[in-house]
Amino acid sequence: MTVITCIEDLKRIYERRVPRMFFDYAESGSWTEQTFRENTSDFEDIYLRQRVAVDMSGRSTASQMIGQNVSMPVALAPVGLTGMQCADGEIKAARAAEKFGVPFTLSTMSINSIEDVAEATTAPFWFQLYTMRDTDYVSRLIQRAKDAKCSALVITLDLQILGQRHKDLKNGLSAPPKLTPSTIANLMTKWRWGIEMLGAKRRNFGNIVGHVDGISDSKDLGAWTAESFDPTLDWDKVAKIKEDWGGKVILKGILDAEDAKMALKVGADAIIVSNHGGRQLDGALSSIRALPSILEAVGDQVEVHLDSGIRSGQDILKALAMGASGTYIGRAFVYGLGAMGEAGVTKALEVLHKELDTSMALCGRRRIDELGRDVLLIPEDFEGRWQA
Ligand SMILES: Cc1cc2nc3c(=O)[nH]c(=O)nc-3n(C[C@H](O)[C@H](O)[C@H](O)COP(=O)(O)O)c2cc1C
């Protein structure tokens, strides 16, 4: 039995167990993958200050995100096609998150539907919305999230048009996979994934198929998604969606202080400093490098969360100490899910929790609210000095 000590271990098992096209789908950034790489490597430019002889008993990572209690300030990010990484993947990930006491965010582009996840869980989850041209469909989707008692709407702002990920085109990514000779050859080495998938509740997009006229299977769906995202999305539309929703709103995909100020104006309850895990604008700053200027612009007026590049509890600690009040993991939980289903997501959360808790202690801090920039050694030019 393999001893799993870190997120990288889960990734290795994940790579062995899941069909290549879904591994590649997760493990890609757009174009040259510069931003994808720097999201993780930039964390290494920040150092932690080791402190000693500080009483480290009675520690806790408990905190709050948008007023909700969390066992650690780490939510599961919305990840499309999670149910292709593992049969009923969204249900399994949501259950693991619920048991761990952290929020789960369901993607619009999930395989399990809003209703499937609501039925399988008791804690309210968050729903991530992609805005579509079909406003009736968006209204119905919002209503379904309300009916499912979702406790926050996460509106993603950085994907009105798709950043190109070369491997998805080369692999002919689809859900379920199209049976080409090379896919069949690869699937034959992933028998366990295949057997579980045969018993899955769904194998295509649960929030869409059956809810949009004329979409009955995945053949129409690829074309539908390419055509259907709303390229005219602007701040007025964001404000209107917020009003229709009427509950807590988190705006995802903010990477610039000016946009953070706009998010504040429309009354967001939180923003997520994010570049979509390096999957959209290649050449954009890593999230951790963009964080300080956004905190400076709006940090005292709105909750600032961060995702993209988190692979360890030390990364979480750095983001929180820099001033984020919450973080999200995308790939880190997908690796666990693909490796070992629900138990793998739990394992990913346990690994991150232990790393966060121990590293906090070694920095001489016992609680999340004791974390501040004095825990960090940040290079003077970390944010970069850019020409006006
Ligand atoms: C495979 C994959 C699918 C994703 N699908 C969505 C999605 O449907 N909606 C969304 O808002 N973000 C999506 N994201 C972005 C994540 O929510 C998150 O921003 C990103 O994964 C964070 O970076 P990390 O993977 O390095 O943690 C996706 C990311 C990945 C890796």
Describe the model:
By secondary structure, the chain is of the alpha/beta class. 43% of the residues lie in helices and 11% in strands. An 8-stranded parallel β-sheet has the order 4-11-10-9-8-7-6-5. A two-stranded antiparallel ribbon has the order 1-12. It has a two-stranded antiparallel ribbon with strand order 2-3. A hairpin with a 2-residue loop joins strand 2 (63-65) and strand 3. Helix 1 (7-17) runs antiparallel to helix 16 (331-362), helix 5 runs parallel beside helix 16 and helix 15 (313-322) packs across helix 16. It starts with 6 loop residues before the first helix and ends in an 11-residue tail after the last strand. 49% of the residues are buried. Bound molecules: flavin mononucleotide (FMN). Flavin mononucleotide (FMN) binds at residues 25-26, 39, 77-80, 107, 109, 128, 156, 252, 274, 276-277, 279, 307-310, 329-332.
